[in-house]
Amino acid sequence: MQEDMDMHPDVERYIATEDELKGIVARLGRQISADYKGKKPLFVGVLRGCFIFMADLVRACDIDCTVDFMVVSSYGQGTTSTGAVKIIKDLTENIEGRDVIIVEDILDSGNTLSYLKNYMMARKPASIRIVTLLDKPERRVAPIKADYAGFTIPDAFVVGYGLDYSEKYRNLPYIGLLKPEIYS
Ligand code: PRP
C-alpha cells in the first residue's frame, strides 16, 4: 500500500497503485506474448492517454513487435464523450496484412474504439484486437469489447498513468479517483 503522503491533493483515493499497475501490465504482457508467439504485431497507441501504459506494455511483451500511434480527440476539455471522433494524426504505417493491437488507456462509451476499429478494418489488416488498461462497461454506448483489459472500474472520474483531467495529472505514477470538487 502506498503512503498517503505520496498522493496528489486533488486525488481522493487510489484506484490502482504503482505496484498494482505493474502486476496488471505484466499479466497483459504475458497474455499478449503467448497469443502472438511467432507473430510480429503492430501496436497502435491512441494518444495521448495511452502513452505511459503503452510504454510499459510493450516492455512487458516478449515478442518482436513494432509501434505506431494515432492522435484522436473526443472529449475536448470536459469529462464526457460527445461521440464525435476527430483524427488529428493518422497511422504512419501501412497496416494491410498486419496483426494490429490497438492500445487504449480507457474504454468508456466505446465511441472512439468503435470508430477506430472500423477505420482500421477498411485498411485490411490480418487481424485487429484491442487492449485497454481500464474498462468502464457501465458507460458503454457503442457495441465494442476489449480483447484484453487490465481492470474494470465503476463510472467515476479517474486520472494518472496517462489519464488526464483538462490535460493535468497524466504524470501521476498511479491511477487515482479525482475529488469531485475539482471537476464540478
Ligand atoms: C479518452 C481515452 C479514449 C477515449 C475513450 O481519450 O484515451 O481514447 O477517451 O472514451 P470513449 O470510449 O467514450 O470513446 P480523450 O479523448 O480523453 O483524449 P486523451 O487520450 O488525449 O486523454
Q: How would you portray this structure in words?
A:
With 184 residues, the protein is of the alpha/beta class. It has one domain (17-183): Rossmann fold (3-Layer(aba) Sandwich). It is built from four helices and nine strands, in the order βαβαβββαββββα. A six-stranded mixed beta sheet has the order 4-3-2-5-6-7, with helices on both faces. Strands 1-9-8 form a three-stranded antiparallel beta sheet. Helix 3 links the parallel strand 5 (99-107) and strand 6. Helix 1 crosses helix 2 (51-59). It starts with 10 loop residues before the first strand and ends with a helix. The model has no long low-confidence stretch (mean pLDDT 93). Residues 46, 48-49, 73-75, 81, 104-112, 164 line the site of 1-O-pyrophosphono-5-O-phosphono-alpha-D-ribofuranose.
What is the 3D form? globular
Question: How many structural domains in the coordinates?
Answer: 1
What is the CA-atom radius of gyration, in angstroms? 16 Å
Continuous helix count:
4
The CATH topology label is: Rossmann fold
CATH first level: Alpha Beta
CATH architecture: 3-Layer(aba) Sandwich
Kindly report the spatial arrangement of strands forming the biggest sheet: 4-3-2-5-6-7
Q: Report the biggest beta sheet as strand number plus sense, adding barrel if it closes.
A: 6 strands, mixed
**What percentage of residues falls in helices of 4 or more residues?**
10-25%
Query: Secondary-structure element order, as H and E?
Result: EHEHEEEHEEEEH
List the ions, cofactors and other small molecules found in this model: 1-O-pyrophosphono-5-O-phosphono-alpha-D-ribofuranose
Q: Return the structural class.
A: alpha/beta
Task: Report, as a whole number of angstroms, the end-to-end distance.
Answer: 29 Å
Q: What is the percentage of strand-forming residues?
A: 25-35%
What do the pLDDT scores average to? 93
Poorly predicted regions are none
